[in-house]
Amino acid sequence: MAIPRRCSAPLLGLLFLLAGGLCCLSLAAPEGARITSLPGFNGTLPSDHYGGYVTIDEEHGRKLYYYFVLSEGNPSTDPLVLWLNGGPGCSSFDGFVYEHGPFNFESGGKSLPKLHLNPYSWSKVSNVLYLDSPAGVGLSYSNNKSDYVTGDLKTASDSHKFLLKWFQLYPEFLANPFYISGESYAGVYVPTLSYEVAQGIKSGVEPILNLKGYMVGNGVADAVFDGDALVPFAFGMGLISSDLLQEVNNACSGSYWNPTNENCESQLHKVDKVLDDLNIYDILEPCYHSPESSEVTLRNDKLPLSFRRLGETNRPLPVRKRMFGRSWPYRAPVKQGRIPTWPELGLGSAVPCTDDQVATAWLNDESVRSAIHAEMASIIGPWELCTDKIDFYSDAGSMIKYHKNLTAIGYRALIFSGDHDMCVPYTGSEAWTRSLGYGIIDEWRPWYVDAQVAGYTQGYDHNLTFLTIKGAGHTVPEYKPKEALAFYTRWLAGTSI
After folding, report:
1. pTM
2. Where are the domains of the chain?
3. Which active-site residues does the annotation give?
4. Which of 113, 134, 393, 485 is the one with CA 20 to 30 A from 345?
5. b (16+ CB within 10 A) / e for 287-320
6. What is the mean pLDDT of residues 80-93?
7. Is 28-222+356-497 in CATH node 3.40.50.1820?
């Protein structure tokens, strides 16, 4: 820092103090964690970036990878937000590359992707910590393959261990307001981890984290509410006729998630047939692959890799089970609560309606791995958007009890939904938030960006907010980046959305 020649002693002291504070912010990070440049990006990074591993089990060598983006505003006081993608088995680089990271990625063809600054990055207003979890997902790994057998509760416990160790490495952020966020199957990850953190705070586990609340986007929550959401969504969007709706209601008595008679099953197959060729992540969008490479239907044997397993609970699986209104013709014997692996389901490798080529090309390049302090593919294998490496048990059950507990003791919660997502329809999220029975303090109304309706919101007691984003699909910031940054900024600041 250049100091003017004519400068009073108090001012000199203040300048040196400020310089020292800025220096300490960087020096407190682990040695070698700072990311100084990124292949594919020309120019100075918009803020400081850090990346690397936190070992959560020394004996097994279980390590979780993180990528940390400091705020472009005031990193010392801006909120710190943890981001988790779902699956289970999907890397949080999904959010970094395609949703709200500091860059927009442009395909480089046979060359590396080109990175451009993202004007709607969430790092504009917050520090963002991207975590690959559990071990075996993305760039996280273990030297003991038994760690790849995991589930909801172990994932929450491991992520909590990660946070405690991470904050020891970055203690200057302990005072920042801390939020946990994610989407899709992170509808399970977020509340279970938030509960672990809250219990740790209550028990005095150090370091004491400054948890303020959590956010879930298009997240699974409860088998019944989410499973019954598709048919009302399809009718409300004009995708099925009133006659078919009446037939399904008569056969299923309004309960679609686990049909108990053949007539109900038959009528639900009619719904499946009508919706077969839609992009389930956004019904307004086309699919990105040719029909030859990815047939798109609502049956779980054709669901994309990242969402084929949504909504499982710790109940035994019936011979035929419906999740989110979609039939699952899986007939092999399963253990209680275990989510079947891809080979058992007979799934191929194609990911319908999605394209992860840019992220795959970038994250499997050796120069990128070196720049972000990640292990090489020769050691931990190739990066995959969603992996088949883990054997996952869904053992936490319904998330409603977690949401009730967390909101009742004062943590803020934002439940947001892209209103054109058919994978986890907003109708289910709206229903379960309403079912908590909290008083309405902000009646259903539109919210705005640039004087245009951006969606609708309803506010409840106990700092619970439900929000829709008009025209957005399953991954809201990917479809509506400006609107996503707008509600994110307002909610973090505690102002009205």
Report:
1. 0.86
2. 28-222+356-497, 223-355
3. 184, 421, 474
4. 134
5. bebeeeebebbbebebbbbbbbbbbbbeeebeee
6. 95
7. yes
